[in-house]
């Protein structure tokens, strides 16, 4: 009798699951498993007999990869294959922040890192202009409702390399109480390496909206001792007596903001830097506007 040996092969083991094949196309948002690079396909071509795809991240940086296995699409492992027959090129879309808009996007799972802003109005403004970018990057914006105990809040958050904090502070200029609060906060263990605090010079984030967006020449000057928001609404001739009036007044202002160009550069640069801090390496320092 002849014996046939098949080695150690386990014939009862299930066959490997076949990955879904995705034809490469411009606009596809992919993650390279090996490097963690996340970007939109902006170009694809044949080179040396291989299909090469170029991924552009939200900062406009590009990197080339060989098509095939090793990619995630909305968290699912897939095989990137040859493109379908060429059709009309899709129109390039731009988000409210000025970055390339990613269409048909499923929001990325939220990072443990956070952006903190002082209040609800700050959070609403950041979401309106940078909301698309934040969803691409998986970043959550949370209002602090004041920074008086910023050090305590950071200590409770317990920042680490995987739990970074980017914090935007109103009226952060030299000689203010905000400067003192921020310097104290940065003494919390781990803050110097894993927390970035930036600020804008405005009394309130309302003032970061360009006057031209509201069809005025400049923001009114409010006398010391008068609540700034109340004074602004009174100068505009809008209701200003209650907290509800304040909220409705802000919504009227926010309704005039559709694009980053309607915000002051002193705010734009700070928000962009905070997003970069939470999505890249080699950060961890304090900046005080002078």
The helix-strand sequence is: EEEEEEEEHEHEHHEHHH
Mean of residue pLDDT values: 84
The number of distinct β-strands equals 11
> What percentage of amino acids are in beta strands?
15-25%
Task: Quickly give the structural class.
Answer: alpha/beta
Poorly predicted ranges (pLDDT <50, ≥5 residues)? 1-11, 282-290
In which order are the strands of the major sheet placed? 1-7-6-2-3-4-5
For the largest beta-sheet, the strand count, sense and barrel status come to: 7 strands, mixed
In angstroms, what separates the terminal alpha carbons? 92 Å
Shape: elongated
Summarize the structure.
This protein is of the alpha/beta class. It contains 7 helices and 11 strands. Helix 2 packs parallel to helix 3 (177-185).
Describe the structure in your own words:
- The chain is an alpha/beta fold.
- 26% of the residues lie in helices and 20% in strands.
- The strands form two sheets. It has a seven-stranded mixed β-sheet with strand order 1-7-6-2-3-4-5, with no helix packed on it. A four-stranded parallel β-sheet has the order 9-8-10-11.
- The protein starts with 19 loop residues before the first strand and ends in an 11-residue tail after the last helix.
- Residues 1-11 and 282-290 have low confidence and may be disordered.
């Amino acid at each position: 009798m002849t014996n046939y040996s098949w080695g150690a092969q386990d014939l009862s083991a299930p066959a490997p699951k076949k990955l879904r094949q995705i034809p490469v196309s411009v606009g596809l948002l992919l993650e390279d498993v090996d490097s963690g690079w996340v970007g939109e396909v902006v170009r694809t071509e044949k080179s040396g007999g291989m299909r090469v795809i170029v991924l552009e991240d939200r900062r406009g940086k590009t990197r080339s990869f060989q098509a095939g296995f090793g990619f995630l699409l909305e968290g699912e492992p897939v095989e990137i294959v040859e493109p379908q027959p060429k059709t009309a090129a899709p129109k390039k879309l731009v988000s409210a922040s000025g970055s390339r808009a990613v269409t048909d996007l499923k929001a990325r799972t939220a990072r443990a890192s956070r952006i903190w802003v002082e209040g609800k109005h700050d959070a609403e403004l950041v979401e309106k202009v940078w909301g698309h970018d934040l969803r691409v990057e998986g970043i959550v914006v949370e209002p602090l409702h004041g920074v008086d105990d910023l050090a305590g809040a950071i200590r409770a958050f317990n920042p680490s390399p995987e739990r970074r904090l980017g914090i935007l502070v109103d009226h952060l200029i030299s000689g203010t109480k905000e400067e003192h609060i921020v310097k104290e906060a940065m003494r919390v263990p781990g803050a110097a390496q894993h927390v970035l605090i930036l600020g804008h010079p405005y009394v309130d984030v309302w003032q970061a909206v360009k006057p031209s967006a509201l069809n005025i020449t400049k923001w009114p000057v409010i006398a010391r001792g008068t609540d700034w928001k109340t004074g602004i609404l009174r100068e505009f001739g809008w209701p200003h007596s209650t907290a509800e009036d304040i909220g409705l007044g802000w919504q009227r202002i926010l309704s005039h903001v559709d694009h980053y160009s309607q915000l002051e550069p002193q705010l734009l640069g700070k928000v962009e830097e905070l997003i970069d801090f939470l999505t890249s390496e080699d950060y961890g320092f304090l900046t005080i506007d002078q």
